[in-house]
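Work Package 3 (structural annotation) set out to generate three-dimensional models for the target panel prioritized at the project kickoff. During this period the team completed the workflow that converts sequence records into discrete structure tokens, so that structures can be stored uniformly alongside our sequence database. As a representative example, we reproduce one entry of 120 residues exactly as it appears in the project archive.
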Amino acid sequence: MADLYSVTAPLLIRRPDGVSAVMAERFPHPQGLLYFDLFWHLGDPTQTVHLIEGTIKGDGPWKIGAAVVRVLGCHGTDAELAADYAEWTLYLNECAAGYPPRAMINAIARAQGVLRADAG
């Protein structure tokens, strides 16, 4: 499988605290992985932007510290998260003007310590 940052399929992360989420944006970070939740821009960035610390290992699924990243399952494997992702894509298709431009997303990532924000 491709590296974590070149995969175009939706990716799910299971964090060390047991929470699973679909990543809207993801960036390589000097300490691991920085990712943004779905609908991150509508909430508090201190709760919707996350740093997962650790070395990224594997080629899909990937491990980052105690977190695991994999492709979002279909056919009922991740039904609730797949529904969240479907809602997200519908939102992006219908409300694209309400989503921050790439330059702003990259600036937010850089403010969080990402060195190359254009890689996400």
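Residues 11-115 form one domain.
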